[in-house]
Design a protein that fits this description.
This protein is mainly α. Helix content is 79%, strand content 0%.
Length: 322
C-alpha cells in the first residue's frame, strides 16, 4: 500500500478496476447472478444498519430538518441533469447515434444512487445522515418523477408505469435497517467504536459487489458488443464530460449555498450520481419496443465512470479531513 501511495495510485480504485476485469471474464450467470444479487442486497441492508447504529438520534433528526441541502441535491438531479441532457442533442447523430442519445437523455432523468452515494460520503467523512435523507428522497421521488420526465421530454413506445415494489425495496433495504440500527445503537455503540476499521470494509465491499453485479449484467446481455470500439470510446468521453460538468456544478452549488464541508460533500456525491439499479428496470418498461440494450448503455458506462471518479474523490477528501 505504501508503494501505491508513493505513485499516487489508490488501492480502492484498483479494486474497482479489478472487479470490472473479473466481471468481464467471469460474469455471474443464472443461479450465480441470483446469489450475487442477494449478497448485494444483504450488504446494502448491513451498510444501513451500521449507519443507523453509528449515528446519534439528534444527528439523524438534524439531517431530516436540513431541507436546503435536500432541495439543492434534488435540483441537481432532476433539473440540472435534464437540462444538460437536452443540450447534448447537438451531439446526435454525428457523435452519438439516435439510440445512444436517447440513452444519454434517459440517464439524465433517473434518480441518484443511494448505496454508493452514502458510502462515498462516509468514506470522505461528510454528512452521512444528510446523504441518507437526500439519496433516499431522490429515489422515492424518482419512482414518480422519472417516468413523468420521460413522458414530457422523450417519445416512448412503452407505457410508463410506476412499480410499487420500488418503494417497498427502498423501505425494506434502506429505511428498516437504518431505524433498526438506531434502536440497537445503545447496545452496540462501544463495540462499533472498538472495531471501527473492520466495519468500514462494509462501505467498500458493498460498492465492489454493486460494480460486479452491474458489469456482469452488461456482459450477459452482450450490449458491449453491439457497437464498434470507437463509438463506445466516444460515448465514454461524452459520459466523462457530463460527469465533469456536474461535479463542477455541484461543488460550486455547495459553496454558493454556504454549506460546510460535510454538506458540500453530500451535494457532490448525491447530486452528481445516477442509479443503475433504478434505471435498468424503468428502461425495460418505458422502452418496451425499443432497443433497450443500447438505450441503457450510456447509463452503464456513466455508472462505472462515476464510481471510479467518486472513489478517488472520497479517498482524497478522507485524507484531508480535519
Amino acid at each position: 500500500m505504501r508503494l501505491l501511495r508513493k505513485f499516487y495510485i489508490d488501492g480502492f480504485i484498483l479494486s474497482i478496476l479489478a472487479t470490472v476485469a473479473v466481471a468481464s471474464v467471469f460474469p455471474a450467470r443464472g443461479d450465480a447472478a441470483t446469489v450475487v444479487d442477494w449478497l448485494t442486497k444483504i450488504a446494502i441492508a448491513l451498510l444501513f444498519l451500521l449507519y443507523g447504529a453509528r449515528l446519534h438520534p439528534q444527528e439523524a433528526l438534524a439531517g431530516l430538518k436540513h431541507w436546503r441541502l435536500h432541495v439543492v441535491v434534488l435540483a441537481c438531479t432532476f433539473v440540472l441533469f435534464p437540462l444538460l441532457g437536452l443540450a447534448a442533442h447537438v451531439l446526435a447523430p454525428a457523435v452519438l447515434t439516435e439510440d445512444l442519445y436517447t440513452g444519454l437523455l434517459f440517464l439524465c432523468l433517473v434518480p441518484s444512487t443511494v448505496q454508493s452515494s452514502i458510502a462515498f460520503t462516509s468514506i470522505a467523512k461528510g454528512n452521512v445522515v444528510g446523504a441518507i435523507v437526500s439519496a433516499t428522497l431522490s429515489n422515492l421521488l424518482g419512482v414518480f418523477l422519472t417516468p413523468a420526465l420521460v413522458i414530457l421530454l422523450m417519445n416512448t413506445t412503452g407505457q410508463a408505469k410506476v412499480d410499487p415494489s420500488a418503494i417497498v425495496d427502498i423501505v425494506l433495504q434502506l429505511l428498516v435497517p437504518f431505524f433498526l440500527g438506531q434502536l440497537i445503537r445503545p447496545k452496540v455503540e462501544g463495540l462499533l467504536a472498538k472495531y471501527a476499521e473492520p466495519t468500514k470494509l462494509v462501505d467498500r465491499g458493498s460498492i465492489l459487489l454493486a460494480v460486479y453485479s452491474a458489469f456482469s449484467a452488461g456482459m450477459v446481455e452482450g450490449i458491449w458488443h453491439t457497437l464498434s470500439p470507437w463509438r463506445i470510446l466516444l460515448l465514454a468521453a461524452v459520459c466523462a464530460a457530463l460527469l465533469a460538468l456536474v461535479l463542477t456544478a455541484t461543488a460550486l452549488a455547495g459553496r454558493l449555498a454556504g454549506f460546510d464541508r460535510g454538506d458540500r460533500i453530500v451535494v457532490v456525491f448525491c447530486g452528481s450520481k445516477k442509479s443503475l439499479a433504478t434505471g435498468l428496470p424503468m428502461a425495460t418498461v418505458l422502452f418496451a419496443a425499443s432497443p433497450v440494450g443500447l438505450i441503457v448503455l450510456p447509463l452503464m458506462i456513466f455508472h462505472q465512470i462515476q464510481l471510479i471518479t467518486c472513489a478517488a474523490l472520497a479517498q482524497r477528501w478522507a485524507r484531508t479531513a480535519p
